[in-house]
Fold:
Amino acid sequence: MRELPRFGAGLWHFASYLDRYAVDGYGPPRTTLDAIELAGSVGELSVVDLNYPFTPGVGLDEVKDALARAGLSAIGITPEIYLRRWAKGAFTNPDAGARAAALDLMSEAADVVRELGADYVKIWPGQDGWDYPFQVNHHDVWKLAVDGIADLAGRHPDLRFAIEYKPREPRVKMLWDSAARTILGIQQTGRDNIGVLLDFGHSLYGGESPADAAQLLIDHGLLYGMDVNDNLRGWDDDLVVGTVHLTEIFEFFHTLRINDWNGVWQLDQFPFREDSVDAARTSIRFLKAVHRALDLLDVDALTEAQARQDAMAAQRLVQDALLQSMAGDR
Amino acid sequence: MRELPRFGAGLWHFASYLDRYAVDGYGPPRTTLDAIELAGSVGELSVVDLNYPFTPGVGLDEVKDALARAGLSAIGITPEIYLRRWAKGAFTNPDAGARAAALDLMSEAADVVRELGADYVKIWPGQDGWDYPFQVNHHDVWKLAVDGIADLAGRHPDLRFAIEYKPREPRVKMLWDSAARTILGIQQTGRDNIGVLLDFGHSLYGGESPADAAQLLIDHGLLYGMDVNDNLRGWDDDLVVGTVHLTEIFEFFHTLRINDWNGVWQLDQFPFREDSVDAARTSIRFLKAVHRALDLLDVDALTEAQARQDAMAAQRLVQDALLQSMAGDR
Amino acid sequence: MRELPRFGAGLWHFASYLDRYAVDGYGPPRTTLDAIELAGSVGELSVVDLNYPFTPGVGLDEVKDALARAGLSAIGITPEIYLRRWAKGAFTNPDAGARAAALDLMSEAADVVRELGADYVKIWPGQDGWDYPFQVNHHDVWKLAVDGIADLAGRHPDLRFAIEYKPREPRVKMLWDSAARTILGIQQTGRDNIGVLLDFGHSLYGGESPADAAQLLIDHGLLYGMDVNDNLRGWDDDLVVGTVHLTEIFEFFHTLRINDWNGVWQLDQFPFREDSVDAARTSIRFLKAVHRALDLLDVDALTEAQARQDAMAAQRLVQDALLQSMAGDR
Amino acid sequence: MRELPRFGAGLWHFASYLDRYAVDGYGPPRTTLDAIELAGSVGELSVVDLNYPFTPGVGLDEVKDALARAGLSAIGITPEIYLRRWAKGAFTNPDAGARAAALDLMSEAADVVRELGADYVKIWPGQDGWDYPFQVNHHDVWKLAVDGIADLAGRHPDLRFAIEYKPREPRVKMLWDSAARTILGIQQTGRDNIGVLLDFGHSLYGGESPADAAQLLIDHGLLYGMDVNDNLRGWDDDLVVGTVHLTEIFEFFHTLRINDWNGVWQLDQFPFREDSVDAARTSIRFLKAVHRALDLLDVDALTEAQARQDAMAAQRLVQDALLQSMAGDR
Structure:
């Protein structure tokens, strides 16, 4: 069997959550250090993506020690440019002071990336967009978004910045909403250290084929990272991977393999009501099954079927690889 | 002009909000008393629907005094059966202790309804449902939902209980998800003191026509109350009413009028990033325009057009009324 | 292994298709007899649901002979009450003459059911609804729908009528749009010979859980029949079953099994661009795999997990049964 | 009042329709000449976009005469590269012969553009995409799409080619699915005579803000044309404009005006069950109201509100303009 990929997770997978209803939280608060320890206890993870700032009072050295104890390293740092201060946007906030504060926070995160030897600063501009028709001037707000990320990347030419696009939430509409729009914006920056983190679920509920989005990003040399989860195509449910869209997650990983994309298989999930370690282990268990299924897939026959765009033949090959219940049939 | 309706709002309209990203909240916390004062300052509201429990330390007498000072009365009480304790459900929680605790809280809320002379206990079982395929036995969980509300209503035969249905959120799927399903469940209870609070936005993004849902509920004698807002049909955005779906909100109120349904026009909105008083005033300003438009509508001609199912003729009548409704105001 | 179910298909699976773009059709026209012969050639089908009227010039005796030659029997007859004459509705057409003509056609179909010894008249009122806000009076149009089906069923007390609900298409909104609404309407008729044909895809893209909808219908004694296919949850794509939603189709069949529902597993698919026999064989091949997976599923452990609403444990059991790639892991 | 724009329509607005259910059509067939006469009878239209080929037996001279008699000119020609021959794609068909045939048809359409002095060849590759996961190799199929349009445009450097993007239908997924993806593809061609026809409804149900999409295309110099209609955001319903999304269509036209985009306001509607002339007149009547509303809008105040991203202030200004736009007309 092909060697297993490295597995990772957003550290928030091991946090506890709030939403607008359960304002007392789905569980007791956890510190950055608690979350690192839980991530380590999964026993399958090699890397984590850490939110920044850390829990108040937790220093960088403590984080380094905790990561070492947990056998983890940092793949990315995600500055929290979606907190109250940036409720109306980070790069596109109408208040110049808020925009400056966001850039400062992202530059601090850049320093942490250097300190921890991470691969990238993860930029998730979830508050950059609008809620209502007529709320913004679309030319001006997109210009703020593009100029802002260009400015940030220009300040840190030694680092890579990975934009995670998403159609919406928390804003009713996000500016960086799709693979194509994000590529377009990155091209407008003229920078070569800005790329994309593709979230399977964001792509799926945005109406993309995640496999197609991955191919498009790879063809533009911009697929810096990816993470997986699942949803019902109507919202970013951040369900555990493999619980709904088995065929499309398989197509996604098949696409990565045929392009020799060998990055980390990361989890971006919100197990609101589940034990987060159990959820992570269930996820990795499934991802290993997908990895085995990739070895079982008759790629030559699939290539021929795809050349004919023969969906039925392709599906039979996929089902042969994916379905154990097919075993008695072969 | 026909006399204006009474206007109301869910008191949460004047709270501040959290979500899974802006965990520090979209604004400073507000107490029940703060929210009542803000509601009063709108100057257009007659009634509010209050969450229960009140802010820790705030007593019922203080609430009564605050309501009196604000010139408001209570139309409903909404027990918060969607907090952490009930993350896996109130009526349908797998833990019998949690179910009992939910019933206790709802019975406390019933006492507050009596104390404040409100119209109903508002039941919003937002955590009653499931997130994953295969998570629940569908027969068992629906039975828990129906038996639970029947038990509650049976304990308080002197009061009315209004179920607010919604397709999803915070659960990936809610059990009480549509007007028809809710009517069906209420019929199964055999109780005559359970009805429905119809939320315009829930109906809209659930794929219903809110006007049709209102008619169905009225025809079953179950429309206990309603509230309005707006969204983009994909999620419960709780936007300010009249910002997106002008025609369908107009059809909704037209349907209420031709059925002589004369209840309160309530707001259920989450102005995350707006001033909540400004948002409420903007809403009422629009609702008054709708009320004028209803007077401008040629109902006889519309009735004839509908008898022919002549959509174009109906639309011209609607546009004539709606697209001049603001004129008288300037 | 549990004995295999009987398999069936809507005869239209073997027709050729038109849509509003490929107005010259996705293939050459096929007669009722052509389609029956193709259905027989699949080699796995026991029954078909036949559209009525048959192709002009094709008589009932020819159809009987063709079915006999193909080794098929009729499970249902579907009167085409969605052709031009009924573009504005069958039961709810504003023209009384069109409504009467629809009832006549459905009564002819009832005779064919008797002649062929089929199980039911399949009623699919796809044109009964509306396209625009304000187009119809919602009370009146629903009354026409309910009274119409009651009248039809009352004329043929010896037969069963199966309503196939669907959220929309070809109308922008269909009246019989969900399991709950359909049950409600059937209850209003007071008839005991009206039930439901549940289409997996209609339920899925309508925002239901098909497993939950099946359970609700079974609990009301109204699940007369079902058919399967797949889609992307946004439209009635009528894709081949098992190509997208493996887990949810598995939950659907699991729900039928635990309720001892032993009807025919029918296909309702539109293979616009595929060979229809190849598509049917690919479908049955997958359905047999699902049938085997049901035998592999640890139902006792699943029942325990569902009692705790433990989604992760339930998913692991489901994946163990469904995924061949998990075999190396067990 | 600002001078009225020129109004136009896709000639198919005046055709009759088929779909997969009403296979006998929603009305009697109409020839190209019938449709031109009907378009002329609307009395408000200046231009039409004509499908090509014309009805068999109808020659170019007859079309020229009919247009002259109807007082219409041609704005675009739309080759029907979505008929049976191209069920699996035009530019991306797996059969090289079908691809060549599509290019030939489009080149014939180019000649008709020259003959009629139209502005562009309208390219609507509705069959270019896929239906099933794993059906295509995403790199290869996108390359076929981009190389194909580049080849076509290269053969006719004297003409302009307007791609009309759409998320899906008739394919489950279309390749040219959004404004951003289309811009990206056009950039890959390196051609300067390929642009975009923006369809309001396609943009809306694709999850874009049509106003934002228009701005993005204008900023790239690629907005060759546009057409309007309406839908419920879940499908390309091609409803009559102004029947659902009043605010967003107003924002769309506001965006065109502030960018001094002064092209034709075209209708792309499918009045399946309506009189097509009545539907067109109802549309223009509404569009004139929108045009008045643009004059009523306090653009300076709106600009200030947008600089603050003050949604409530913006909405009040919009409602003031829109909700009195019909008043002057009565």
Summary: Chain B touches chain C through 51 residues (CB under 8 Å). Chain B has one domain: 7-276.
